[in-house]
Automatic annotation (TrEMBL):
InterPro entries, sorted: LEA_2, WHy-dom
Domain Water stress and hypersensitive response per the UniProt entry, residue ranges: 35-154
Protein name: Water stress and hypersensitive response domain-containing protein
Taxonomic lineage from the root: Bacteria, Pseudomonadati, Pseudomonadota, Gammaproteobacteria, Pseudomonadales
One Pfam family it belongs to: LEA_2
GO biological process: response to desiccation
Length: 164
């Protein structure tokens, strides 16, 4: 004969086993989207304020729509933090498609100008850059994709009148 205590124990065990199975409903085997910083466009450069447009390309490698809630970013040039911020406009990316996003930023590079001049002294020498941040996706079930991309830029490639 099953006592109340045994019945309660059995019910708790079944609930526990059933709820652990629910966690597997949300496991996503699809690859994460990929974010590229494609271009940095100078809009206006004054002594104490610079305005840029950051051009990002976000690739959706999946077979379903990707809903993006926000993009948090930090961009380092060498050891210098150039800018950080958040683009919080919602948008969707179709399956197997890419979207280009222009993010306006405003910064003051004056306190860092001495270090920047040292890096730009030789325009043919490469300078490492780093993009870090998070891409927040999902509609009802949020999913954060951590970004970490490294690369180098050659300032001479960005200056049109530079002769080689």
């Amino acid at each position: 004969m099953i006592t109340r205590r045994h019945a309660l124990y059995l019910l708790s065990l079944l609930l526990f086993l059933g709820l652990t199975g629910c966690a597997s409903w949300f496991v996503d085997d699809e690859p994460d989207p990929v974010v590229h910083l494609v271009k940095v466009e100078v809009v206006r450069a004054k002594l104490l304020e610079q305005k840029f447009l950051l051009h990002f390309r976000i690739d959706n490698p999946n077979d379903s729509d990707l809903n993006v809630r926000s993009l948090e970013y930090r961009i380092h040039l060498g050891d210098i933090l150039l800018t950080e911020g958040e683009y919080d406009n919602w948008f969707s990316i179709g399956p197997k498609h890419s979207v280009y996003v222009k993010v306006p930023i405003r910064t003051n590079l004056w306190p860092k100008v001495r270090d920047l001049v040292k890096m730009l002294k030789n325009p043919d020498q490469s300078i490492p850059y780093r993009l870090e941040g998070e891409l927040k996706t999902g509609l009802f079930i949020p999913h954060d994709v951590h970004l970490a991309r490294n690369g180098v830029i050659i300032p001479a490639d960005l200056i049109p009148e530079h002769t080689q």
